[in-house]
Every structure is written in structure tokens, then in C-alpha cells.
Write a structure and sequence with these properties.
The chain is built from one helix and 18 strands. The protein has an 18-stranded antiparallel barrel. A hairpin with an 8-residue loop joins strand 8 and strand 9. It has a domain of 83 residues. The radius of gyration is 22 Å and the shape is globular. The chain is mostly beta strands.
Length: 356
Amino acid sequence: MVEGEEEFSKKSSKENKDNNEETTMKNFFVLLLVLSFGRLAVAGVDISGEYRFREWNNLTNSSGRSDDSRFTLGASFREGDSLMAHLSLIANSSGLVEASEAYGVWNFADAFELKFGNFSMDWANGTVFASNSWEAAPTVFNNSVSLAYDAGMIKVTYAELDRTEGNALTTAVGVDFMSLPAVAKTVHLFYVKQDTLSKYGAVVAGNVDILSYDLTYASDKDGKRKASMMHAKVGVDVAGMGKVVGTYHKDKDGYSPLSYDKHANAGLMDQYQWGDVDGLAYYTVGYVHSLNDASAAGVFYNAFKNANGDKLGTEIDVYASHKYNDVLVATARYGKHTPEDGKAFNQWMVGLTLNF
């Protein structure tokens, strides 16, 4: 979870900003209405949207109170079963409206899928590439292309990401093994090349009765530098109660995490990131309880070290969420971070998400 804050030095500039935001949001809602009516008139067009508001209150540190909001509108245009085009627009707290994703998909020869344009990717259960939808602006690879071949038992994907001139081209190859037994229902191999960096690894995940697991290993090589990452998650279902979960992670000095899912890892307060200067190691233990299909609550304890074993601090996270009619989602979270060499601070976060 990432906080966004912005300061304005002059009252006049703030007033102009507020006016621009109001005008931008009005135009955006007009666009929403136009496209919504278009959905009724044009076959093969699907409109979706999300409005999200979040407020943080840092109770015991200098950053104080902050909030952010985001409005996302998406339109998918389909022509039969083989062609699809997608466009999504984002208006954030700064009043800026921009295209987030804009891509096309062509399915041909029964087994091939070609995707081109600006799009997000989720690979290796979010440990290599992730859309990072919790951020104010999701991770999108511009001017990119991917080609996937699905042979039923195996799926191979080749991608060239961020092919814009002047940027470091990322080349990725992924292999997924399909139709596997539950004990190893996910087996994913990957190789990534970015400039002088080479990364390879594997993900294996599955479940046995009440036990589920998710194991990831990755190795980096960049010139003479070598680094690795190990990430393991386990969960145990407790009948009539909920789920006990645990995570262990360790990456070595110099590991490059690329665009992994930052918020889903290393605590909900986002105080640490994979690939920190001295490497990062941590474990998480927690309990998640689903009261029903619409409500859930959880508590987590995290302990952090660097790769040399020096303690960095601890974090406690408590959250609760409720979904109203699959449209409105309300979330509340409390976090307490205690650094090893500093003063602890507390943080509240409340959020509302409206989906349509």
C-alpha cells in the first residue's frame, strides 16, 4: 500500500489545481456516460469502471494525514472470438487523465495469441512482473508485444516489453505446465533478459488436503554480480475458523526484483522492498478469517532483517473488509511499524472502492 502526498506552496496555484481537478472529473464522468450509452448501442463493447478513495492517518510520525483517489474507466471492443481491443483511462488525485492500458489481442490458428500495445503483465505469481494495481498508477509496459502458444498441456509465452527507443528492452520467456494434479497445480518457468541483467527461476504451487504452498526461486546475473531470491508461502485451513498463513523470504545483496507486486509482499505498510541495498529477509505469520462470502478480517506479524542477519524491525498489520452487493468494498487497516533503531509509529488506513 503506497501513500501519495503532494504539497502546494501558493494558494493561487492550489485554487487553479482544484478547478482543474473539478473540470477534469466532470469531463471524465461525461465520457463515462457517453461510453455507457455506447455499450447499449454497439454489440461487442464491454464497459467497466472503478472509483477508489483511500485516506491514511499516520498517528505518530511527521507525515500526518494524507489521501488519494483514482477513477478508472475501461472499454473492451470485441470482433468475434479472434479480435479484441482494450482501452483504460485513469484520473488520479492530481487531476491528470491519461491512458493506462491500450492494447490489441489477436487469437489465431486455434493455439496462438498475439498481444501488442501498452499493457500490464503478471508473471510468476507476481514475483517477477505484476500490475501493481494498489499503486496510484499501475505498472504498464509501453510499446510491447507478446506471443503465446497454448498446446493444452504446456503454454509458452515470449514477450518484448518496453520497446520504446532509448529504454532498456526487456525480453521474457515463460513456460507454464497445464492440467497438473492439485499437489503441483502450478509449475511456471521463466527467463528474463534486461540490458546486462539475466534472470531465471521457477514457481511451484499446489495444495494437499488442508495445506497449500507456493514456492519461488530466482537467480540474477549482471556482469560479475550474482544474486538470488527465495520466497515461500504456506497456508493451513482450520475447519470452521479460517486460515493460518506463513511466509519466508530472502534475497541477497544486489538482487533485482523488476516490477514485482510490492504491496502483496513485505508487510502492508510498504516499509521495505525486495532488493534493498543490503538484501532483505523476513518472515510473516498471520491468521485470515472469512466471516462469510462478503466479509473478511486478518492479522499479521512481520519480522525483518537484512541478508547479513542484522535486525531491521517488526510490523503488525490488522485489516477488515466488507463487500456490498459485489459493487462497493469498504476496507479498514491498522499498522504498527517498530524499527530496530528508531521510534515506532502507527498508521490507520480506510478505503472505499466502487466497481461497476
